[in-house]
């Protein structure tokens, strides 16, 4: 790729830059506790939580930065932050 | 400098420097102007807002903002959308833009901004020196310095031409000494609209914000590509060296006025002592050169028009045969006890095996007057360096010991 002046690019470029590699902790669901309230999906600053057909949610680890906001905000404690392993 | 004053006389009008700049901006047909008034820049943007209100600049919008940070931020958007964009500021206002200055340059937006140079706080001081723009030297803006009001007026058209060139695409600061040039009334030939239209083509960037063909500006660059962005900016600066000279030459062909490209020289050919400076002090130095030449002193002047890109080669070629070079700076890098022109000039000589002593004087800070006698004293100091070989590297000028 050659860089255009100013690095101007087509829309959607953020899909190519997978920012999940920065993560130290990753969020993990405990679906037994989840009440499908949707708060985690709404509050994730990186839009890294996707809805599933069954009403639950799942993480898109390609973009989740591991900030822990979802775990902090979940009213049921259904998300745990666990240390990433190699 | 090449000008035919006799020919120009019939077209000259006596106007304030700020009016000459505003009138030049008008002739350049900007699409968006955004600025926050601050002394001594105020008259420039007052005149421009009046022009727009009177319908004298068609297809141009004046964006009123609450600060200089917003003024330049607004122009990031307008310039990215393909609008010819202009602002003016000074001192604290320019320092408040610091963060945005990097963005404008990094996004390669050819905004043009006039700086009415002024000292920075604290202590509060509204008078002229060049600390404000020099402090922004590493932001990736081209920086040009004008000697008089005619030059700052003409430089405005050159700035758009240089910055908007597809090979360059860099923002340009045109710097004029606050009050000394911004508030002085002197005879000026205002830029002719038709000639400027011939000189300056419309701004048509290849890449711009367009809803029909969406683009992302100012995107993210990780460690894999950030270095390359900086490299490309530096390359554009290198190309600007030639473009600045071409813009001055083309301007001369059409308008018949020339003040130098990257630099200009005055009586330097056989000079033992060469004084280097930027801005309006150059005029005073020319008088001193005339006076001392009449007494047989071999002294000359090197006027630096372009401080960024810094014209290493052009300066080197002029000063290499001198016995001593003196850099006069209306700024200081505190902690190094040097002005920027002095530091950069020394750097251009190192590694070339040319051993010309360079001495520096910090002068005219906070609007302190620079009389002819002060320059003469500096030349005397330079003579001492030739005689003794002892170099006192850099010093404040005319310090009032009784206040210390
Ligand atoms: S850890 Fe942060 S980034 Fe990852 S899913 Fe939760 S809120 Fe989103
Ligand atoms: S915030 Fe907690 S309870 Fe609500 S949907 Fe997300 S995981 Fe389930």
UniProtKB/TrEMBL annotation, chain A:
Positions of the 4Fe-4S ferredoxin-type domain: 25-54, 55-84
Any one GO molecular function term: oxidoreductase activity, acting on the aldehyde or oxo group of donors, iron-sulfur protein as acceptor
Keyword Transport: yes
PROSITE patterns: 4FE4S_FER_1, 4FE4S_FER_2
Pfam families, A to Z: Fer4_21 (PF14697)
InterPro entries associated with the record: 4Fe4S_Fe-S-bd (IPR017896), 4Fe4S_Fe_S_CS (IPR017900), PorD_KorD (IPR011898), Pyruvate_synthase_PorD (IPR053389)
Keywords annotated in UniProt: 4Fe-4S, Electron transport, Iron, Iron-sulfur, Metal-binding, Oxidoreductase, Pyruvate, Repeat, Transport
Cofactor(s) annotated in UniProt: [4Fe-4S] cluster
Translocase listed as a keyword: no
Superkingdom per UniProt: Archaea
PANTHER family linked: PYRUVATE SYNTHASE SUBUNIT PORD
NCBIfam families cross-referenced by the UniProt entry: PorD_Arch, PorD_KorD
Oligomer and partners: Heterotetramer of one alpha, one beta, one delta and one gamma chain.
Protein name as catalogued: Pyruvate synthase subunit PorD
Species this protein is from: Methanococcoides methylutens MM1
Automatic annotation (TrEMBL), chain B:
Keyword annotations: Oxidoreductase, Pyruvate
Keyword Oxidoreductase part of the UniProt annotation: yes
Domain of life: Archaea
EC number(s) given by UniProt: 1.2.7.1
Domain Pyruvate:ferredoxin oxidoreductase core: residue ranges: 271-375
Enzyme class per UniProt: oxidoreductase
UniProt xrefs under InterPro entries: PFOR_II, Pyruvate:ferred/Flavod_OxRd, Pyruvate_synthase_PorA, Pyrv_Fd/Flavodoxin_OxRdtase_N, THDP-binding, Transketo_C/PFOR_II
PANTHER family cross-referenced by the UniProt entry: PYRUVATE-FLAVODOXIN OXIDOREDUCTASE-RELATED (PTHR32154)
Gene3D superfamilies xrefs: 3.40.50.920, 3.40.50.970
Any Gene Ontology biological process: response to oxidative stress
One Pfam family per UniProt: POR_N
A GO molecular function held by the record: pyruvate synthase activity
Catalytic activity: 2 oxidized [2Fe-2S]-[ferredoxin] + pyruvate + CoA = 2 reduced [2Fe-2S]-[ferredoxin] + acetyl-CoA + CO2 + H(+)
Protein name: Pyruvate synthase subunit PorA
Assembly behavior: Heterotetramer of one alpha, one beta, one delta and one gamma chain.
Positions of the Pyruvate flavodoxin/ferredoxin oxidoreductase pyrimidine binding domain: 24-247
